[in-house]
Amino acid sequence: MGWVSPIDRWRTGSWAETELSAVRLRESPGRGARGGGSRSGVSLLVAVAGLALVAGVLGVTLRAAPGPAVADAEGAGERLSASGESGATAPEEPRNPGDGGSSGGEGCREGVEGARAVASLKPSRKAGRAVKRVRKAERLVVGVDQDSYLWGYRDPASGRLRGFDIDLVEAIAEDLLGGDPEIVYRPVPTERRVAAIRDREVDMVVRTMTISCDRRDDVAFSTAYFEAGQQLVAPKEGARVKGFDGSLRGERLCYARGSTAEKLMRTRKVRALGARSVTVPNQLDCLVRMQLGTVDATVTDSALGAGQAAQDPSVELVGEPATVEPYGVAMNPADRDLVRRVNRVLEEYRKGGADSAWRSSYREWLADEMMGTEDGKEPSPPKPVYGD
Description:
Elements: H1 6-12, H2 15-18, E1 23-25, H3 42-63, E2 78-79, H4 129-137, E3 140-144, E4 147-148, E5 152-154, E6 161-162, H5 164-177, E7 183-187, H6 193-198, E8 204-205, E9 220-221, E10 226-228, E11 230-235, E12 252-256, H7 260-265, H8 268-271, E13 276-280, H9 283-292, E14 297-301, H10 302-311, E15 315-318, E16 325-327, E17 330-331, H11 336-350, H12 357-365
Parallel strand pairs: 3-7, 3-8, 12-13, 12-14
Antiparallel strand pairs: 1-7, 2-13, 4-5, 5-6, 8-17, 9-17, 10-16, 11-14, 11-15
Helix pairs in contact: 1-3, 5-11
């Protein structure tokens, strides 16, 4: 399966169903072959060409959207306000369950500091039922993104999936299955990640998925392998949005359904800023809509926003991140031995300091696009937190 632009998928309305079909590849682990064409301008040219296509095919329809409410992917608009009087009932504030979930740990607290309290199971190489199931199948089925530049995207030159998340998938597969493992990459929309795990469509999801208390009710997470935060992406020219402040009033903000951006946008504090909500299946759709002028800014993880800015230099990250959010590998809660095994892989992935596999992947994909630490140094992988 070659590159299929998100614009074409959007135009044909085929996001959810077609993207859940398996993309079966026997990927050679050779990471040394990642450079060159994978970071060339090809992706940007494809994106620009796709945007031109959408402008021609969809432009009139999108510009004709009536009224002050913005039509989202489901044809409904919503104004976020302090009163929540938008015609849609705003959910309550995020839950704060205290049972520790299936990933291990006592209690679960969210927030800038509490995100680190989302603990996982201690690492182990013991092969239990889930690990044996994967080995018996002789393949690993992984839910991924194929449209997030630098994280998980299909290189139009080679047709291969590449990115920071894909490197981690390869490391996990090699540990479970040995050299030259068979990996079934199954592209999963943001809103389908939990369902894909629950329904056993995949063995795991590696897709910039934030570890959160409410998600722990449905999936088991590994320890964190990266930390990002919710931030705004806006056009460099003419944007009124400056950050999570009064500049959002009346602005049209785009975000993916089922994402932590949606959760942030529905908190009382952000609702009080008076922005308007536009929801889409995938955060890359927001980049298309910004180009078409049907939204004013995107709310997304800072890591994904950096990828959008790298893919399209006409947009940029603005303001400060509103949250601190750790990414984890998500698995079925019953697969406790697989969670422990993945955590063992992550222990090895982080080892080696400047020469670790984690830092090598970071330098390959993210170093040129993401800001470092406050002292200008390259960030380190998150320290693991275990709760059992």
